[in-house]
Amino acid sequence: MSSFRFLHAADIHLDSPLRGLSRYEGLPLEEIRNATRRALDRLIAIAIEEKVSFLILAGDLYDGSWQDASTGLYMMKSLSRLVHAGIRVITLSGNHDAQSVIARELPRPAGIDHFSYDAPETIRLEDIQVALHGQSFRERHVRKDMTPTYPEPVSGWFNIGVLHTSLSGYGEHETYAPCSVETLASKHYDYWALGHVHARQIVCHHPWIVFPGVLQGRHIRETGTCGAMLVSVENNTVQSVTPVACDVIRWSHIVIDIADLHDLDDVMHAARLRMEHALAQADGRTVIARVTLTGTTTLHDSLCASTCWQDDLRSVAVSLDTGQNPIALEKLRNKTTSPPTTNTLHDLDTALSKLMSDPEFIATLSDDFEMFFSALPGCVERSSLMADENSWPLEEASSALRARLMGSAS
Ligand SMILES: [Mn+2]
After folding, report:
1. In angstroms, what is the span from residue 397 Cα to ligand 1's centroid?
2. 295-325 pLDDT tens trace
3. Are residues 209 and 60 in the same domain?
């Protein structure tokens, strides 16, 4: 029975670009370019600071084949620092860094263990009696559940399953090595160190099934704190699973409903407050924000007519830069709508009246009604829905529509 701590991370996607940024003056490009490397630096620093026994990287260390060897060399240099500090490293390949995807591999120094591509295997840390079970992806697309062939737990030891998986399906994440909480639980391991799903999530506490999430958010759908999980084990029992932030750039989606604002100055003021809040939340990190304006407003037309407000908003962002904690704008979205005007209503009403007096239009409607009636179950009498054989309920429909339109304007 031993006590130790370890770090569980996944989805580093080293050197993958941060996406969706439009270039403009004031965008900290250099900082953005190196974000995934600096997040890895933080992970390494935390591992050393926290004196963990080992680090698990559960797949997608790389985003795909390297542009050049420097990506792989940076990873090896970083992990070697842990080895020198006496911290073991256990890595696994996922879909993005499957054997068939990464054109070449660099030799790994002793102290870094990489799960086999051929079959599930057990890596044993004898001194602390920890058994890690796992298998790397050979091909990018793994469609079958990999867990049935995972080894039996080592009795009396602390057992960890390492797996890159979409579990039973997670929204936008493609299906890889599908499995369920039940199949994972049936292996009788103590902790499942998963990777692939980029949103941090503790799926289950008995056993622990954990996605640490992406190490550094890379686009506007990866907002909020990103990093790794610090796991504390005492007498072979997990005491705590604590998220630790490793990201150096924080993505934030700021949605502002401007329905109640009167002019663009008010919009800028509201945006400033929200940006200040995002910066305060980011704890010294650079923030990349998308600002989306919503709501039904008379400002809609002027927002559409000019792009000046976008420059104004960028200017607000730039003015918040204290020199160490900038906020950059990824994109500005105008999703406001214009309130219906009396003119629009009048136009609609005229169009409706015109249609109702158009015999051709009435004929097509009659066909629709005919289809509707023929689809009704036999027990519904046609006569209960129509005043007489040749009168469709058109007047009722059009006056109901008129009433709705007038109602929305008031
Ligand atoms: Mn993946």
Report:
1. 52
2. 999 999 999 888 888 889 999 998 888 777 7
3. yes
185 CA distance to ligand 1 centroid (A)?
Answer: 22
Is residue 374 predicted with pLDDT exceeding 70?
yes
Q: How many structural domains are present in the chain?
A: 3
Percent of the chain past pLDDT 90, that is, above it, reads: 61
Minimal CA–CA distance to 71: which of 12, 8, 139?
12
* CATH code for the domain of 91: 3.60.21.10
Sheet (strand 121-125) strand order: 121-125, 130-134, 158-164, 191-195, 208-211, 201-205
Strand-pair category, 121-125 with 112-114: unpaired
164 alpha carbon – ligand 1 mean position (Å): 7
Question: Nearest 10 degrees: CA dihedral of 136, 139, 141, 146?
Answer: -40
Residue 10 CA to ligand 1 centre (angstroms): 9
User: Quick one: pLDDT band at residue 79, thresholds 50, 70, 90?
Assistant: very high
Domain range for 192: 4-245
- Residue 67 token pair: 């542009």
What angle separates helix 308-319 from helix 264-281, to the nearest 10 degrees? Answer: 40
Examine the pLDDT at 410 and tell me if it is beyond 70: no
Distance 277 CA to ligand 1 centre (A): 32
Cα of 132 from ligand 1 centre, angstroms: 20
